Amino acid sequence: MNRIVSIFRPNGRRAFASSAVTPSSSLLPDRSLPLSQPPPANPSWESQEELVEDYDPSVNGYYPVTVGDLLGQRYQVLCKLGWGVYSTVWLVRDTLSKTPAYHALKILTNVATEASTLHELDFLLRMRDASPQHPGYPHVVHLRDHFIQDGPHGRHLCLVMEPLLQDLRSFSIRWNHRVLPHPLVKHLTRQILLGLQYLHDECNIIHTDIKNSNIMLVPPGGADAFLTNMNVDNSPVEKSVVPGPNGSTVTLYRTQPIQLPLPDWSSSPDSLDPWRETQVKIGDVGVACWASHVDKHFTDIIQNPALRAPEVALGAGWGKPADIWSLGCTVYELYAGRPVMPPGTEDWQVITFQVMCFGDMPPELLKRAKYRDVFYKPDGTLKISADFRADIEKYIRRHRSPDVSLLIDFLRATLTLDPAKRPTCRDLLAHPWLAM
């Protein structure tokens, strides 16, 4: 089966969610361009979970999990950690282990399992085995086991991985104005870059979906000990039985990302010391791509529109530099507490927003842009006026970080419009801003 559902939902819902979030303002004015579907003010938790209609095997075919299920003849389901367009993710306990042992179990939909165009298992195997001594190896998620689970409507690939805590998106919500301490942002950026360098240089993988909701925090002091102390075996779960497709019912479980305990940092807000043990990993390579086979990827339009590189939006050919662009957007949001572009940005708005923020597109990029006519008139002017110009430097300087000039230089490098001039991970790891 080669049919694949779209990465991004036409109704504007995010491909991945770990908690209900109301979009913050962006670098651009709220009314720079109309957003066709503003989010509801107080969405129900059920509306933030996977789509019920996707339990239909003819659409996508989620596996109907029940907390307490024993899957793969050894993994007992404890609670739901998250979901994606192609999967749900659960915290499980290994019943064959003599001591408490916990894992994250990602259960792919039947459509994703049978698709010949998705290669998540292959990517995870490469990530696990390629180069364990590389400094970026600890900063990507690792596969522990995999098996096929038969469901009522077909097969489901199950990926057993190390259990991780909340993602950086939900973590940032815990901070005033979603602004993380500046030393922590720098600390996390270095780790993300190391993980991305490992994917690019050692694994030949382009992630294609770098964003704060795909960067996961690591349990401090070891996952098994941490989760045992959290008493996760007895965690309360919230569920709702709702009408499903074809006259069925579906049991939805509320996502319960496990929070990272915060250290005592208030006495030294400008010091890295409270955060030295804080670690992150890049997760979710479900829509990744082999760097040497970009032409065989199942879609040429990758990335969430709000984090989409200009060469991707224009159809000008993309590669590893596209991940660098998304990294820059992610770092900016962690630092400033607001995204570069509004979370509801749609495909047809991307280039106009980018011109507003970063200036006119390079002529050489436009020459090879097969989607140029989507954004530009025959005379070369934008179809949507970009008279307003945002000043990214102004917004960064508001936070008065002592090394703000270096940060601005770092972000300008990652957000270079011409992908040929965008730095590599190796280049960025040598940037003065990351000097610890």
Task: Characterize the structure shown.
The protein is an alpha+beta fold and 436 residues long. The chain has a single domain, classed as Orthogonal Bundle (Transferase(Phosphotransferase), domain 1). It has 13 helices and 13 strands. The protein has helices at residues 110-114, 120-129, 168-172, 182-202, 223-229, 310-314, 321-336, 350-358, 363-367, 372-375, 392-397, 404-414, 425-429; strands spanning 16-17, 70-71, 75-84, 87-94, 102-108, 143-151, 154-161, 205-206, 215-217, 239-243, 249-253, 280-282, 289-290. Strands 1, 2, 3, 4, 5, 6 and 7 form a seven-stranded antiparallel beta sheet that branches. A two-stranded antiparallel sheet has the order 8-13. Helix 4 packs antiparallel against helix 7 (321-336). It is globular and about 60 Å long. The model is unreliable at 1-24 and 29-36 (pLDDT under 50).
